[in-house]
């Protein structure tokens, strides 16, 4: 009779004996076959099978071994857990720059691609932003930081009628844009392809929520000095729904809407002159 065990022990056994369990997911195997395919000693394989059998995770059949239903289910759960750990661990350096209460769930990180800024390639994330914006025809976004490359990129897309966007900026970012790029901002707004909202709140991250030609989410992470540290991109439905809710969360908190160059006067001109 199998020994009584608790769930923590069973989980630990699967984690430690995962190589053996994984081989058995393909079907029954003889212990000699496991020794040869895993490159382990006979005693190691025997001990692994014996331990798994004692937890009723494998059973012996016709001189071989197969997973039980419990064994297969625990292995599947173990694999999902390991993938979840990987999805969190890979972008950990980016997550460290976000407030601990940032509303990002595991579902947003699942399957996401991560590009980091490196000392030898500090603009890698900007290159990803450029690719996303050039391929998009409609998007929403959050802009806590303005880089000169962003201004040139978005301006070109707007005036060439290649992109429609609704962007939310922090007050300092918007005032910087108006002060340093007044002509570009006016022309972009007058193209009819840009709507801007301004919020007094701090935006925790940059967000690109591409609506067309296909759904895509880009999360741009900056350090305290406004330097891009990296970008996460994903096309999953869960991530897109999260991005849409994130944008909708900040939209009601904006204090101004700007849809044309005429909307820049007089408030923004005053801000520009005082900068």
TrEMBL record:
Q: Which Gene3D superfamilies match?
A: Winged helix-like DNA-binding domain superfamily/Winged helix DNA-binding domain
Any signal peptide, and if so, which residues? none
List residues of the Methanogenesis regulatory protein FilR1 middle domain: 122-251
Report the InterPro entries cross-referenced here: FilR1_middle_dom, HVO_A0261-like_N, WH-like_DNA-bd_sf, WH_DNA-bd_sf
Q: Which residues form the HVO-A0261-like N-terminal domain?
A: 14-86
Organism name:
Halogeometricum limi
Entry protein name: Predicted transcriptional regulator, contains HTH domain
Q: Tell me one Pfam family matched here.
A: FilR1_middle
